[in-house]
Amino acid sequence: MTQTSHPSDKALVPFVSVDHMMQLIHRIGLEQMLRELAGYIEDDFRRWELFDKTPRVASHSAEGVIELMPTSDGEVYGFKYVNGHPKNMKEGLQTVTAFGLLANVDNGYPVLLSEMTILTALRTAATSAMVAKHLAPKGARTMAMIGNGAQSEFQSLAMKAICGIDTVRLWDIDSKATAKCAANLAGHGLRVVPCTSAEQAIEGAQILTTCTADKQCATILSDNMVGPGVHINAIGGDCPGKTELAPGILSRAGVFVEYPPQTRIEGEIQQMPEDFPVTEIWEVITGRKPGRRNAEQITLFDSVGFATEDFSALRYVRDKVKGTGLSHMLDLLADPDDPRDLFGMVQRAAPAEM
């Protein structure tokens, strides 16, 4: 028999599993959760100057990338572990998986551990729609969704819930992905139009979302495909060498980014000179700089995902799971009665003589 004591409260950290995350979504409602999550993300952009900011720490390989995304507002620290492996889809695996953690800055003790594969899809969609609320042309009702993989339904429903779109035009190089997305969106209050080309998908669309997974310098939208007055939500680029837009589009657009030092490495603007002008989205949200200047302007959100957005998402989940039972308490931290006697705690756990 092993001599152990019950873990202290400080040793136990709430863990939100995949199952609990799915239950939370259904309890709140997907569109309501996207709206609330967008509010948390926008609130944290409003206090942007409080946050530690650094480009994500990336480990690249021939097959993909594994990254850590840390930040802190001075009181709470957070990070996300996330990968991006485009080949995984062919092997029946997720292209992106993730988990995240929040900790108290004053003592360093973690206070939440959560799945973030689903949560990343939610926060990415919520961020896209929150930014589109500030930049898209007034009265936008149609979005082209180019790339119909794991993010596409979340993006479509976030734009509906936050920006009021009522039509989504779908295209993917894989027609099965388009059929999947169309079937999943059925009954969600959107008019869904499957298309046979990117050119067809963008016809009549005021918002163009590109979300593809190929880790290469691709041209999903060429310069002559994009007319005046649209908002482009480019979310597929997230590492060096991975782009979706022709440089000519960037030259004609007002470009908005999360954190320039990261976006210049990973975003669409990696194709442009180092002094290519951009506007940080927090400046628009706080009113320091204008967003869309006129009805004819092309606006482009060159989104690569930033750590503050994950911090906001984890903060939201921490608030929402309180009192719901939608978490497991993990015995994650060694917490001996005497903080100087970690060895003694280990010794006392030795099996007793039979």
Automatic annotation (TrEMBL):
<dbReference type="InterPro" id="IPR036291">
    <property type="entry name" value="NAD(P)-bd_dom_sf"/>
</dbReference>
<dbReference type="Pfam" id="PF02423">
    <property type="entry name" value="OCD_Mu_crystall"/>
</dbReference>
<dbReference type="InterPro" id="IPR023401">
    <property type="entry name" value="ODC_N"/>
</dbReference>
<dbReference type="InterPro" id="IPR003462">
    <property type="entry name" value="ODC_Mu_crystall"/>
</dbReference>
<protein>
    <submittedName>
        <fullName>Ornithine cyclodeaminase</fullName>
    </submittedName>
</protein>
